[in-house]
Amino acid sequence: MVVLQKMKFAIALLFIALNSVVASELILTGTVISNNEKMIPARYMGYVKKINFEVGDVVEREDTLFELESAEFDILESQADLALEQAKLMVDVYESRRNSLKKEKRNLERDRKLFSKQDFKMNMDDISEATDNVSSSLESAQVLVKEASEKTKQFASVMGYLKVKAPNNGILVDKRIRVGDMVAPGMLTMIIVDMDHLEIEAEVAESDLKYVRRNKVVNIKIPSLGYKASGYIKAVVPSANPMAHTFKIRVHFEKKNDMIFPGMYAKVFIDLTNEIANKLN
User: Fold this and answer.
1) Residue extents of the structural domains in the chain
2) How large is the average pLDDT for residues 82-88?
3) What is the pLDDT of residues 162-193, one digit of tens each?
4) 38-69+163-193 under CATH 2.40.110.10, yes or no
Protein backbone atom coordinates (compact mmCIF):
# COMPACT_ATOMS: atom_id res chain seq x y z
CA MET A 1 0.00 0.00 0.00
CA VAL A 2 2.82 2.38 0.92
CA VAL A 3 4.67 1.46 -2.25
CA LEU A 4 1.53 2.18 -4.29
CA GLN A 5 1.13 5.62 -2.69
CA LYS A 6 4.76 6.43 -3.38
CA MET A 7 4.31 5.46 -7.02
CA LYS A 8 1.23 7.67 -7.32
CA PHE A 9 3.07 10.57 -5.71
CA ALA A 10 6.02 10.14 -8.11
CA ILE A 11 3.67 10.03 -11.11
CA ALA A 12 1.95 13.18 -9.89
CA LEU A 13 5.28 14.97 -9.56
CA LEU A 14 6.28 13.84 -13.03
CA PHE A 15 2.95 15.04 -14.43
CA ILE A 16 3.41 18.44 -12.79
CA ALA A 17 6.96 18.71 -14.13
CA LEU A 18 5.90 17.75 -17.65
CA ASN A 19 3.01 20.20 -17.51
CA SER A 20 5.37 23.00 -16.46
CA VAL A 21 7.65 22.09 -19.35
CA VAL A 22 4.79 22.43 -21.81
CA ALA A 23 3.30 25.63 -20.43
CA SER A 24 6.27 27.51 -18.96
CA GLU A 25 7.21 30.80 -20.58
CA LEU A 26 8.84 34.08 -19.70
CA ILE A 27 6.53 37.08 -20.10
CA LEU A 28 8.07 40.52 -20.64
CA THR A 29 6.30 43.85 -20.90
CA GLY A 30 7.42 46.35 -23.49
CA THR A 31 6.53 49.25 -25.73
CA VAL A 32 6.11 49.55 -29.48
CA ILE A 33 8.77 51.86 -30.93
CA SER A 34 9.82 52.97 -34.39
CA ASN A 35 13.14 51.78 -35.71
CA ASN A 36 13.39 54.86 -37.91
CA GLU A 37 12.68 58.03 -35.96
CA LYS A 38 14.13 61.18 -37.49
CA MET A 39 14.92 64.39 -35.63
CA ILE A 40 14.69 67.33 -38.06
CA PRO A 41 17.13 70.14 -37.19
CA ALA A 42 17.47 73.60 -38.70
CA ARG A 43 20.58 74.12 -40.84
CA TYR A 44 20.64 77.93 -40.77
CA MET A 45 19.45 80.74 -38.55
CA GLY A 46 16.30 82.53 -39.63
CA TYR A 47 12.62 83.14 -39.07
CA VAL A 48 10.06 80.48 -39.93
CA LYS A 49 8.15 81.72 -42.95
CA LYS A 50 5.80 78.84 -43.68
CA ILE A 51 4.89 75.44 -42.17
CA ASN A 52 3.30 72.92 -44.51
CA PHE A 53 2.40 70.09 -42.10
CA GLU A 54 0.86 69.64 -38.67
CA VAL A 55 1.27 66.91 -36.04
CA GLY A 56 -0.40 63.70 -37.23
CA ASP A 57 0.03 64.46 -40.94
CA VAL A 58 1.54 61.84 -43.24
CA VAL A 59 4.63 63.10 -45.06
CA GLU A 60 6.58 61.64 -47.95
CA ARG A 61 10.26 61.82 -48.71
CA GLU A 62 11.33 65.20 -50.18
CA ASP A 63 8.13 66.95 -49.04
CA THR A 64 8.93 70.51 -47.90
CA LEU A 65 8.19 70.51 -44.17
CA PHE A 66 8.75 74.23 -43.58
CA GLU A 67 10.50 77.26 -45.06
CA LEU A 68 12.67 79.94 -43.52
CA GLU A 69 12.53 83.63 -44.34
CA SER A 70 14.84 84.24 -47.31
CA ALA A 71 14.86 88.05 -47.76
CA GLU A 72 18.48 88.51 -46.68
CA PHE A 73 19.60 85.46 -48.64
CA ASP A 74 17.69 86.74 -51.70
CA ILE A 75 19.72 89.95 -51.58
CA LEU A 76 23.00 88.08 -51.18
CA GLU A 77 22.08 85.71 -53.98
CA SER A 78 21.18 88.64 -56.27
CA GLN A 79 24.52 90.26 -55.47
CA ALA A 80 26.35 87.06 -56.28
CA ASP A 81 24.46 86.70 -59.58
CA LEU A 82 25.25 90.33 -60.45
CA ALA A 83 28.95 89.83 -59.67
CA LEU A 84 28.98 86.78 -61.94
CA GLU A 85 27.35 88.68 -64.81
CA GLN A 86 29.82 91.55 -64.44
CA ALA A 87 32.77 89.15 -64.41
CA LYS A 88 31.47 87.44 -67.57
CA LEU A 89 30.99 90.83 -69.24
CA MET A 90 34.60 91.76 -68.43
CA VAL A 91 35.77 88.50 -69.99
CA ASP A 92 33.80 89.26 -73.14
CA VAL A 93 35.26 92.79 -73.33
CA TYR A 94 38.86 91.61 -72.90
CA GLU A 95 38.43 88.76 -75.37
CA SER A 96 36.99 91.20 -77.91
CA ARG A 97 39.90 93.59 -77.31
CA ARG A 98 42.45 90.79 -77.67
CA ASN A 99 40.87 89.67 -80.95
CA SER A 100 40.96 93.26 -82.15
CA LEU A 101 44.66 93.53 -81.34
CA LYS A 102 45.35 90.30 -83.21
CA LYS A 103 43.58 91.75 -86.22
CA GLU A 104 45.59 94.98 -85.95
CA LYS A 105 48.77 92.95 -85.83
CA ARG A 106 47.82 90.99 -88.97
CA ASN A 107 46.95 94.22 -90.79
CA LEU A 108 50.23 95.81 -89.74
CA GLU A 109 52.20 92.82 -90.99
CA ARG A 110 50.25 92.92 -94.24
CA ASP A 111 50.94 96.64 -94.77
CA ARG A 112 54.49 96.47 -93.52
CA LYS A 113 55.88 98.06 -96.70
CA LEU A 114 53.86 101.20 -96.01
CA PHE A 115 55.84 101.95 -92.85
CA SER A 116 59.43 102.67 -92.18
CA LYS A 117 61.37 100.05 -90.31
CA GLN A 118 61.38 102.20 -87.16
CA ASP A 119 57.64 102.97 -87.32
CA PHE A 120 56.81 99.32 -87.98
CA LYS A 121 58.83 98.20 -84.97
CA MET A 122 57.26 100.89 -82.78
CA ASN A 123 53.73 99.90 -83.81
CA MET A 124 54.46 96.20 -83.28
CA ASP A 125 55.85 96.92 -79.81
CA ASP A 126 52.74 98.90 -78.90
CA ILE A 127 50.47 96.10 -80.11
CA SER A 128 52.49 93.47 -78.24
CA GLU A 129 52.42 95.48 -75.02
CA ALA A 130 48.69 96.11 -75.33
CA THR A 131 48.13 92.40 -76.05
CA ASP A 132 50.09 91.39 -72.94
CA ASN A 133 48.09 93.80 -70.80
CA VAL A 134 44.77 92.58 -72.22
CA SER A 135 45.80 88.94 -71.73
CA SER A 136 46.65 89.58 -68.07
CA SER A 137 43.35 91.37 -67.55
CA LEU A 138 41.52 88.53 -69.28
CA GLU A 139 43.11 85.97 -66.96
CA SER A 140 42.10 88.05 -63.93
CA ALA A 141 38.54 88.34 -65.24
CA GLN A 142 38.38 84.58 -65.79
CA VAL A 143 39.44 84.04 -62.17
CA LEU A 144 36.68 86.41 -61.07
CA VAL A 145 34.17 84.40 -63.11
CA LYS A 146 35.28 81.19 -61.41
CA GLU A 147 35.04 82.73 -57.93
CA ALA A 148 31.66 84.29 -58.67
CA SER A 149 30.38 80.96 -60.00
CA GLU A 150 31.40 79.23 -56.77
CA LYS A 151 29.58 81.87 -54.73
CA THR A 152 26.40 81.49 -56.74
CA LYS A 153 26.56 77.72 -56.20
CA GLN A 154 27.00 78.23 -52.47
CA PHE A 155 24.01 80.55 -52.26
CA ALA A 156 21.95 78.17 -54.37
CA SER A 157 22.80 75.44 -51.85
CA VAL A 158 21.89 77.73 -48.95
CA MET A 159 18.57 78.62 -50.58
CA GLY A 160 17.89 74.88 -50.84
CA TYR A 161 18.50 74.44 -47.10
CA LEU A 162 16.00 77.21 -46.34
CA LYS A 163 13.35 74.75 -47.52
CA VAL A 164 13.62 71.88 -45.05
CA LYS A 165 12.54 68.60 -46.60
CA ALA A 166 11.45 65.26 -45.16
CA PRO A 167 14.24 62.63 -45.22
CA ASN A 168 11.81 59.72 -45.50
CA ASN A 169 8.15 58.72 -45.44
CA GLY A 170 6.44 58.81 -42.06
CA ILE A 171 4.12 60.64 -39.70
CA LEU A 172 4.89 63.98 -38.11
CA VAL A 173 4.64 63.26 -34.37
CA ASP A 174 6.15 66.44 -32.92
CA LYS A 175 6.35 70.05 -34.13
CA ARG A 176 8.29 72.54 -32.04
CA ILE A 177 8.11 75.64 -34.24
CA ARG A 178 5.48 78.15 -35.31
CA VAL A 179 5.40 80.72 -38.08
CA GLY A 180 7.47 83.71 -37.00
CA ASP A 181 9.73 81.76 -34.63
CA MET A 182 13.47 82.20 -34.99
CA VAL A 183 15.44 78.98 -35.33
CA ALA A 184 19.17 78.45 -34.90
CA PRO A 185 21.47 75.87 -36.53
CA GLY A 186 21.03 72.47 -34.89
CA MET A 187 17.76 73.42 -33.19
CA LEU A 188 15.23 70.55 -33.14
CA THR A 189 12.17 71.58 -35.13
CA MET A 190 10.21 68.41 -35.92
CA ILE A 191 10.19 64.64 -35.35
CA ILE A 192 9.11 62.19 -38.03
CA VAL A 193 8.37 58.55 -37.25
CA ASP A 194 8.48 55.82 -39.87
CA MET A 195 5.36 53.70 -39.30
CA ASP A 196 6.50 50.85 -41.54
CA HIS A 197 9.46 49.77 -39.39
CA LEU A 198 8.15 49.11 -35.89
CA GLU A 199 9.72 47.03 -33.13
CA ILE A 200 9.04 46.22 -29.49
CA GLU A 201 11.46 47.32 -26.82
CA ALA A 202 11.29 45.36 -23.56
CA GLU A 203 13.39 44.89 -20.45
CA VAL A 204 14.54 41.54 -19.14
CA ALA A 205 15.82 40.91 -15.63
CA GLU A 206 19.47 40.03 -15.23
CA SER A 207 18.49 36.64 -13.77
CA ASP A 208 16.45 35.85 -16.93
CA LEU A 209 19.07 37.03 -19.39
CA LYS A 210 20.22 33.44 -19.85
CA TYR A 211 16.93 32.70 -21.63
CA VAL A 212 17.40 35.46 -24.17
CA ARG A 213 19.49 35.30 -27.33
CA ARG A 214 19.51 36.97 -30.71
CA ASN A 215 17.26 35.54 -33.44
CA LYS A 216 15.24 33.51 -30.94
CA VAL A 217 11.63 33.24 -32.08
CA VAL A 218 9.09 34.75 -29.65
CA ASN A 219 5.40 35.59 -29.59
CA ILE A 220 4.13 39.11 -29.12
CA LYS A 221 0.79 40.55 -28.13
CA ILE A 222 -0.66 44.06 -28.16
CA PRO A 223 -3.53 43.77 -25.65
CA SER A 224 -5.37 46.97 -26.63
CA LEU A 225 -5.87 45.64 -30.16
CA GLY A 226 -6.00 41.95 -29.35
CA TYR A 227 -3.17 41.65 -31.86
CA LYS A 228 -0.97 38.56 -31.79
CA ALA A 229 2.03 37.73 -33.94
CA SER A 230 5.36 36.02 -33.90
CA GLY A 231 8.71 37.73 -34.11
CA TYR A 232 12.32 37.31 -33.16
CA ILE A 233 14.79 38.96 -30.82
CA LYS A 234 16.71 41.37 -33.00
CA ALA A 235 19.15 42.68 -30.43
CA VAL A 236 20.16 42.46 -26.80
CA VAL A 237 21.48 45.84 -25.71
CA PRO A 238 24.67 45.19 -23.67
CA SER A 239 24.02 47.97 -21.18
CA ALA A 240 22.39 47.18 -17.85
CA ASN A 241 20.17 49.47 -15.84
CA PRO A 242 22.24 49.72 -12.62
CA MET A 243 19.17 50.49 -10.50
CA ALA A 244 16.80 47.77 -11.73
CA HIS A 245 19.46 45.36 -13.03
CA THR A 246 17.61 44.88 -16.31
CA PHE A 247 18.70 44.72 -19.93
CA LYS A 248 16.86 46.04 -22.99
CA ILE A 249 15.97 43.83 -25.90
CA ARG A 250 14.55 44.71 -29.31
CA VAL A 251 11.96 42.40 -30.88
CA HIS A 252 11.24 42.56 -34.60
CA PHE A 253 7.74 41.62 -35.71
CA GLU A 254 5.69 41.90 -38.87
CA LYS A 255 3.15 44.70 -38.77
CA LYS A 256 -0.18 43.55 -40.19
CA ASN A 257 -2.44 46.12 -38.57
CA ASP A 258 -2.47 49.80 -39.50
CA MET A 259 -3.67 50.70 -36.00
CA ILE A 260 -0.35 49.76 -34.38
CA PHE A 261 1.45 52.91 -33.29
CA PRO A 262 4.66 53.70 -31.37
CA GLY A 263 4.05 53.96 -27.64
CA MET A 264 1.53 51.12 -27.43
CA TYR A 265 1.81 48.64 -24.57
CA ALA A 266 2.99 45.19 -25.65
CA LYS A 267 3.88 41.81 -24.21
CA VAL A 268 6.64 39.44 -25.29
CA PHE A 269 6.31 35.70 -24.63
CA ILE A 270 9.54 33.69 -24.58
CA ASP A 271 9.10 29.93 -24.57
CA LEU A 272 11.23 28.22 -21.88
CA THR A 273 10.35 24.62 -22.78
CA ASN A 274 13.81 23.66 -24.00
CA GLU A 275 15.56 25.34 -21.09
CA ILE A 276 13.43 23.57 -18.46
CA ALA A 277 13.71 20.25 -20.29
CA ASN A 278 17.50 20.55 -20.28
CA LYS A 279 17.47 21.19 -16.52
CA LEU A 280 15.31 18.14 -15.88
CA ASN A 281 17.67 16.01 -17.92
Assistant:
1) 22-36+194-280, 38-69+163-193, 71-158
2) 89
3) 889 999 999 999 999 999 999 988 899 999 99
4) no
Quote the percentage of the chain above a pLDDT of 90: 38
Enter the CATH code of domain 22-36+194-280: 2.40.30.170
Gap between the Cα atoms of 235 and 214, Å rounded: 6
Over residues 9-44, the pLDDT tens digits come to 444 444 444 443 344 889 999 999 998 889 999 888
pTM for the structure as a whole: 0.57
What is the predicted pLDDT for the residue at 48?
A: 93
β-bridge mates for residue 185, sequence order: none
Alpha carbon distance 228, 27 (integer Å): 14
